[in-house]
Amino acid sequence: MKFAKVALKDTLNISGIYSVHYFEFSKTYTFPGESHDFWEMVYVDKGRIIATAGERDMVLQSGEVIFHKPDEWHNIRADGAVAPNVMVVSFDCRSPAMAALISRKQKISSSQREVLGELLSEAQLAFSSPLGDPYDSTLVRRKNSATGCEQLVKVHLLRFLLSLLRESASPAATDRKRGSLPLLDAIIEYMEQNLHQKLTLTTLAQEFHVSQSHIKRLFAQYRSRGAMQIFADMKVSRAKQLLRESDRNVTEIAESLGYDSIYYFCNQFKKHTGMSPLEYRRSVIATGDIAKNLY
User: Fold this and answer.
1) What structural domains does the chain harbor?
2) 182-214: b (≥16 Cβ within 10 Å) or e
3) What values do phi and psi take at 7, rounded to 5?
4) Which parts of the chain register pLDDT below 70?
5) Residue 259 has what DSSP assignment?
6) Distance between CA 160 and CA 166 in Å, rounded?
7) pLDDT for 205-238, tens place per residue?
8) Using CA atoms, how far apart are residues 168 and 171, in angstroms rounded to an integer?
């Protein structure tokens, strides 16, 4: 039997990447704007921002993404009330299919968010440049980086873009797909709404009338970490947001998130961030001062 090779078609072709950033902005952060000859993706992971594309302003809420086409003037700013977490990826792509994503905000699914998380993880393995520095415009390759990490950055970006393009072509199918994991989404939403509580697997099992083992299997299959690990990450993420957007002291923030001990809270915060809560707050203030001086 003779086999014939099929040359696979590329809907998108990414020839290079300029930046991968994950920012934790203060509630007063403002970027003055820029334009360049490559694509830029802006995704709001937490909070909200005001994004400008050309002459059009739009509010991007948590879970929404927008793409700026090459040579389009754009900027972002916080709204003065909420301290946002924002992911920005800049890349070169000359494929006509990208036209479907131009300057149109889009809500992404939990599975697409996981793909962006994988992209960030591989970018950290591939590049030594700090992903949280808004004034760092050059990616520096790590010496002795993990095998294939740069290619995986490209693969995850393509996965994300192609999933958005498929959704834009078939929105009805997308709606059905997004409803395929209602229990997992409900548990995650419940945890986000109860960050002030001391939740356990027992609590979650009782709330959703399922066994603890079922919750463990669900998170093992569709998330890279367990439910309680994710809940701990959520608490620290919320603490960081409160440190950026409020004047509450560390003790007040710890109490609002259900921590019995300020020492335990500070230890957990440093374990996740590498900084104490006060060091983190000072770093955010310093970043804002740099922005004022630059512009």
Assistant:
1) 14-178 (2.60.120.280), 182-294 (1.10.10.60)
2) eebeebbebbeebbeeebebeebbeeeeeeeee
3) -75, 120
4) 170-180, 286-295
5) -
6) 10
7) 999 989 999 999 888 888 878 999 999 999 999 9
8) 6
